[in-house]
Amino acid sequence: MTATILIVEDESDLSAIIADYVTAAGYEVDVIADGRAALTRVKHRSPDLIVLDIMLPGLDGLSLCKQVRTFSDVPIIMVTARVEEIDRLLGLETGADDYLCKPFSPRELVARIRAILRRQRKPDDDMRLFNIDEPTRTVRIRSQALDLTPTEYSLFTAMAKRPGTIHSRAQLLDFASRDNLDVTDRAIDSHIKNLRRKLSVLLPDVEIIHSVYGLGYRIEL
User: Fold this and answer.
1) Which residues lie below 8 Å from residue 14, measured CB to CB, with a gap of 6+?
2) The overall pTM is greater than 0.85
3) How many CB atoms lie within 10 A of CB 145?
4) Element (H, E) at 98
5) Which of 15, 17, 13, 19 is nearest to 5 (CA)?
6) Cis amide linkage into residue 103, ω under 30° from 0
7) Which residues are within 8 A (CB) of 29 and not within 5 positions of it... i.e. 6 or more apart?
8) Can you list the domains of the chain with their CATH numbers?
9) What residues contact residue 38 under an 8 Å CB cut-off, 6+ apart?
10) Which of 221, 146, 158 is nearest to 188 (CA)?
11) What is the CA radius of gyration of the chain?
12) Where are the alpha helices (DSSP H) in the chain?
């Protein structure tokens, strides 16, 4: 069954270009230029993925994303002309799975759409790579246990439960703090470095944790 991509963008020239590329990639496309109309569409007939601009009439993209997340886990790629750090983080913390800053390559957008939809279809493959046993707080990579500290376990499992999603340092700090762990913002990078080192022992040819410049980290499987 062909996946449906909902493009929520009020710049008609840009939405037409995006629609052409996404259609050429083999997906069905719907285009809506108003935030409130898009929210109604998602409530009544959810797409497989949403490409969502932040600046919209009716209802802005951040508010739309927040409302969608109250009833749906549909993947969302946020698109914005704003380059300030706070706006990028806001987009991610409202539940977006990825982001692009304008101007962007339509081919890059299609590549990210494919990657997200591929992850949505392959939960069993992900579980074969690693297994999380929450009662024992153990992570196994291909049946071999990782020797993780409590902080490393919290950070890894937080990211692994949402592969592909960018987690800011502030978000990761919050995950660690929920377990009453004394972790500072600056220490997050050190814990990620240690996690990468331990993962590389069991997966020497696979990069699991990726840095996203200026934003944080994400796990790619």
Assistant:
1) 102
2) no
3) 13
4) strand 98-101
5) 19
6) yes
7) 4, 5, 7, 19, 22, 23
8) 4-121 (3.40.50.2300), 123-219 (1.10.10.10)
9) 6, 8, 32, 50, 52, 56, 59, 64
10) 158
11) 18
12) 12-24, 35-44, 61-69, 85-93, 106-121, 123-129, 150-160, 169-178, 187-202
The number of residues making up the chain comes to: 221
Contact yes or no for 157/164 (Cβ under 8 A): no
Looking up tokens 């009020």 gives 10
User: What pLDDT score does 125 carry?
Assistant: 47
Region class of 2: left (phi > 0), else alpha (psi between -120 and 50), else beta: beta
The CB density around residue 75, as the number of other CB atoms within 10 Å, is 23
**pLDDT tens string for the chain (221 positions)?**
789 999 999 999 999 999 999 999 999 999 999 999 999 999 999 999 999 998 899 999 989 999 999 999 899 998 887 666 445 655 566 778 888 888 889 999 999 899 888 877 654 444 457 788 888 888 888 778 889 998 899 899 888 888 878 888 888 888 777 665 556 667 888 899 999 999 988 888 778 898 887 778 888 76
Neighbours of 59 (CB within 10 A): 16
